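Progress against Task 2.4 (sequence-to-structure conversion) is shown through the following example record, which the project officer requested during the mid-term review.
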Amino acid sequence: MTPATHEAIDHKPGQIDLVIVTMVWISFLAYSLISAPIPAVNEPHYLCKAKHYWQPEWCAGDFFLESTNAHTVFYATVGVLTPWCSLEQTALIGRIVALLILSLGWCNLLLTLHSERWFPLKVCVLFLFFQACGSFSGEWLVGGVEGKVFGYGFLFAALGEVNRGRVISAGAFTGLAISFHPVIGIWGLLAFSGTLLLEIAPAMIRVISRKSASETAEQPVEVGLAGQIPVAHGVYGSLLLMACALPGLIPVYRLLSEAVPEQTKAAANFIQVHYRLAHHLDPRTFLLRAYLCYLGLLVLWIALAGRRSAPFCHGLLAERRFNRLVGFSILFAVSGVLIGWSSLPQRSLLLKFYPFRVADLLVPLAVAMGLARIWPSSGGTMLSRAGYASLFVIALVRVHFVSESNRYSAEQTADWISACHWIDEHLAKDVLVFAPHDGRAFKWYAQRAEYVSYKDCPQDAGGIVEWNRRLQFLQKWFNAHFDDEKYTVEELRDFRKQTGITHILTDRIGPVELDPVFGNDTYDVYDLTTLD
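Structure tokens generated for the chain above:
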């Protein structure tokens, strides 16, 4: 008997192992802190919103912070820390909690798909290696804290509960996934609904064809989840799903039913899909390398899916169910690609719902699971331990060198933080600042309202159109008033009158007929209120 086999027998199949959960959690947390140093690229976007949700006076007047909330559940839960903790502390605590939920959901699902104790940790290492190599539509799972990390954690937990036949708790977890991130939760629910239909289809066909009881007895067929649970449990699970999902669905409904002209909605969809979030939503902008890599992953997944793992308490049905789930996510993504490359007039409307998002993660996850089944257990041989450890180190090294913080020089980053801190320490709380669009996390460091930020785009149609108008106004104004190669006092006074901006933080605008109130090697701060 091999060590791996002995370990699988000693470990009760499907049981959550706190040691493995802890190791997966530590792996996720280490990858998170190295790949996305605080603040990660999206943390200022979400956590500043969360802080403003609990403290509306903070950065009052900021265009983005006062726009319609889309992720209310995330703001209401994680944001509760912000009145007592700094944004940095909130980010760290949020990551710890979110990744713990993700680790528990991860292990809850994977231990229903394979009986080996170390399987969740092996898949974790392989998946993080794939994530470090890239993605199809820019989707990631482990990085900063935001609603989707909670969403995926609850979604994985729900799928694990389904495999165990616990549909009541599965309904609650699915509802929580939808509440924390409606896009992920709903796509996951749709994929599972398709999977369930495939499971019950044979039973429905048998009923329609009216096979005799003797034939059925001689040739038993698995009827799937629908034939294994009491009807009452299914009803209770559905009710819990709806109750837990409503806190996240109500804000989304308000966004989608916003009372604005259809022309505004169409413009907002176009701006969001083909401009601001084209790297996530428009398949025409995806790299050829991404298409080729994911095509390779699909071929590898199909090859690995044909290899059966040793059945245990949950049987092969759970494995088939997960493969079908992956298949439906791929169907959604392929539909998105076809829509994206078509000339349908509704193309922008359909693509705004992120059809690639779930497949972008489930495909590498499915491949990682297939590889982990055929790669010897990390508890079995020193060679396999060294192999997984090496992959993990390679993943950490790669993401360190491509992390967001490395896009800026150390000197530029230090000057940026210094200028923002000066604003925080010297300017009134009610100022309105224009900051450079490539500046990172202005509100995070300066704690002041911003006129507009390229990163911080609202999600309501009216807000998206206004965001685009402000960006276009700034570009046109600065270009139009530089014909004499300087910005005069009168021009700046007109600029302040049109925008309400009180201060300009810049590294490139000039020369200006106004002395800066602060300056370092990279940035200057100009006070436009002196022109009043």
